[in-house]
Amino acid sequence: MKAKISMVSLGCAKNRVDGEMLLYTLKDSGFEIVSQPEYADAVIVNTCGFIESAKKESIDEIIELGYLKQEGKIKAIIVTGCLAERYRDEILKEMPEADAVVGIGSNAKIADIVSEVLEKHRISRYDDKEKLPLCGGRIQSTPHYYSYLKIAEGCDNRCAYCAIPLIRGGFRSRPMDDIISEAQTLAKNGVKELIVIAQDTTRYGTDICGKPMLSQLLRELCKIDGIRWIRLLYCYPDRINDELLKTIASEDKILKYIDLPLQHCSKNVLRAMNRNGDRESISSLIRHIREMIPGVVLRTTLIAGFPGESEDDFEQLSEFVNEMKFERLGCFAYSREEDTPAYDMPNQIDEEIKQHRCDLIMQQQQLIMERYNDKLVGASTEVLCEGYDRVAECYVGRTAADSPDVDGNIFFYSEKSPEPGDLVTVKIDEYIGCDPIGTQV
After folding, report:
1. How far apart are CA 290 and CA 330, in angstroms?
2. Model's pTM, two decimal places?
3. CA distances from 431 to 358, 383, 400, 441 (A)
4. What are phi and psi of 271, to 5 degrees?
5. In the chain, pLDDT over 90 holds for what percent of residues?
6. Cβ(307)–Cβ(272) under 8 Å?
7. pLDDT confidence bin for 53, thresholds 50/70/90
8. Domains of the chain, start order
């Protein structure tokens, strides 16, 4: 009888892709994959370990699964992902619920590890993190009509607040032929929206070709039949160039949506973060992007309360947000992470002040979004239908301006009974909060 395996995958989309590859490896090795942990023999917790809130979520999940193990509903808990790679044997020592802790470099060995754990062995294994498989089969965990496409692993940027290079290692690109082959398979399986991800998508190809190759990759992806939308996330501002902007502007399948994590605009804070640029250069870049790609939707993320952020630095950030009027924006209070350069920096800021500054930025963004949305009422837009919402008693979907999980949804009425994955045209009638309400036309 096959052992049954379930997975709880936490954190970012890049971690989700790793989890999908783990599931494929297990299924290919003869295990049965089940969606509900309570029906499994072993549960894999694919953890996030990036910031404090994500670590807490991972730990809470392990504890909750521990209760199922105490009740005899599951036999074993295997911890993988970033938290496992970052804290290793500390997890086994501090969390008796865990039967195995597996670093990302050992993902290819997951079938053997699960077998050993089910034989009542307690295991920790941490192969070289650069052995993390970049290529291979996946069991898609997203709805059938969209999928993430990871084009690289690791990061070389070394931002002072970030533990990703410590956890994931240096930047390494996937071969382009392998990426294209995977995208073709996804398209044959019904995927219409490809969401291109990496720690830094704009660096793609520099390590294997000696120059950025993202534009060429995107043009090749556009040739794939069945793919209708290509969305680009995690674009590092230093490597946005005209070749990339021209590619986005000229290719119909590439959504006019760029995720551009800026983190701050003050030169003092950016230097402390080990990032380049200042308010003037970043503002100039944003204006240039909007000139090159009319109607582009820009998403950014910001950090409030970084060590040493003065009142003047924060005022600059506030003015910058009001001036640039990003179509999509998230702000996060700085999370102090051990083993990063920022952890030991002087002038750490009180938690309440950090959160207050973060809240102020998000309040500003709310007003910006309301003004932005007012201008869209009466317009028609293409929508990817995601199903029928029984609570709202209408259909729900996403526009080209909305990435899954991080942006909003559009709710719409229809007499045509669209199916999940259908691309339909919706006229926007009004907004409730930041969510548009419309009618299929």
Report:
1. 20
2. 0.95
3. 25, 16, 17, 18
4. -65, -40
5. 95
6. yes
7. confident
8. 4-131 (3.40.50.12160), 146-373 (3.80.30.20), 380-440 (2.40.50.140)
pLDDT at 50 over 80: no
Q: Which residues pair with 303 in a beta bridge?
A: 332
Name the β-bridge partners of 382: 425
Task: Please classify residue 43 by burial: count the beta carbons closer than 10 Å to its beta carbon, then call 0-12 exposed, 13-18 middle and 19+ buried.
Answer: buried
Cβ-based neighbour number of residue 181 at 10 Å:
12
Residue 359: its pLDDT value, please? 98
Nearest-Å Rg of the Cα atoms of the chain is 22
What's the 3-state SS for the chain?
Answer: CCCEEEEEECCCHHHHHHHHHHHHHHHHCCCEECCCHHHCCEEEEEECCCCHHHHHHHHHHHHHHHHHHHCCCCCEEEEEEHHHHHHCHHHHHHCCCCCEEECHHHHHHHHHHHHHHHCCCCEEECCCHHHCCCCCCCCCCCCCCEEEEECEECCCCCCCCCCHHHHHCCCEECCHHHHHHHHHHHHHCCCCEEEEECCCHHHCCHHHHCCCCHHHHHHHHHCCCCCCEEEECCCCHHHCCHHHHHHHHHCCCEEEEEECCCECCCHHHHHHCCCCCCHHHHHHHHHHHHHHCCCCEEEEEEEECCCCCCHHHHHHHHHHHHHHCCCEEEEEECCCCCCCHHHHCCCCCCHHHHHHHHHHHHHHHHHHHHHHHHCCCCCEEEEEEEEEECCCCEEEEEECCCCCCCCCCEEEECCCCCCCCCEEEEEEEEEECCEEEEEEC
Per-residue model confidence as pLDDT tens digits over 386-430: 999 999 899 999 999 999 999 999 999 999 999 999 999 999 999
Determine the Cα–Cα distance for residues 201 and 129; give it in Å rounded to an integer: 20
Write down the residue that tokens 């301006």 correspond to. 401
- Which two tokens mark 300? 């950014």
Instruction: Give residue-wise pLDDT tens across range 141-161.
Output: 999 999 999 999 999 999 999
- What does the alpha-carbon distance between residue 269 and residue 77 come to, in Å, rounded to a whole number? 41
